[in-house]
Predict the 3D structure of the following.
Amino acid sequence: EACRILQKGGLVAFPTETVYGLGGDAMYSEASAKIYAAKGRPSDNPLIIHIADMEHLDKIVEEVPEAAHKLAEAFWPGPLTMIMNKSDAVPHGTTGGLDTVAIRMPSDPIALELIRQGGGYVAAPSANTSGRPSPTTAQHVYEDQGKIPMILDGGAVTIGLESTIVDLTEEIPTILRPGYISLEMVQAVLGEAKMDKGLISSDSNIHPKAPGMKYRHYAPKAPVTVVTGPAEASARTIEQLAKPGDGVICFDEFADRFDQQTVECLGPSRDKRIQAQRVFDALRTFDSK
Ligand code: AMP
Ligand code: MG
């Protein structure tokens, strides 16, 4: 039924291993237009096309660079998105007007089956309302997107962070959005790769290359203070800052220091994998409280 909705140009939200996606037929401009409308996403912010089979890549890109083969071998299916020059088959309505296209092959079995049976090319941004924290459960999607025809519930996602975006149209492969796959992991496969200057520069004249990174994103409704630094020192700073009744997101070891506050645990301070899985959910949990 979900595949029929896609084939008729409708939208279906579905689980991937990173976050839930809001899918439509990528080769059909009107479906992409519906995605932008449902998310409230600025139309210059392009969508990622999800594929399920390597053979499907040829149709949507001008050519497949050698680096793409290497990265696909290492990380697909999985949380890596690659930017390549698009072919004429891909409508500009899906790429936010750009001549490049973002592509990912997810590993979630529900996602793969939906893509295969739904036409092979599913444009899918994260299923949150634009600007909100990404959805990691079907319930999160329902809160943001109550009016779409169908949400496939695959339970809580396993990764919980966005895919890493690597731009392969530049001389040196460049990470445009940090995600689950680190720069070091990409460098280990390609030899050479760098971070987009716009991501790491404090100079506001240098803009990030991924259009989505210039907009406010992942923002909960409540005001948030971020404390960075070594775990123990950060916990002490939070102790000084947190007022009774505040919400605190912290590592498991420090939870019992905050008996005047409501606490959401991110997992042990050493376990980045669990922290990734929980961070968006923790922000949304406080919003709903
Ligand atoms: P989301 O769909 O929520 O995962 O966000 C997709 C991200 O990929 C946004 O930050 C987009 O701006 C970025 N993106 C998609 N396509 C391209 C492209 N062709 N060039 C640069 N960034 C892109
Ligand atoms: Mg997103």
Remarks:
- The chain has a mean pLDDT of 95.
- The CA atoms of residues 93 and 207 lie 23 Å apart.
- The chain has ten helices and twelve strands.
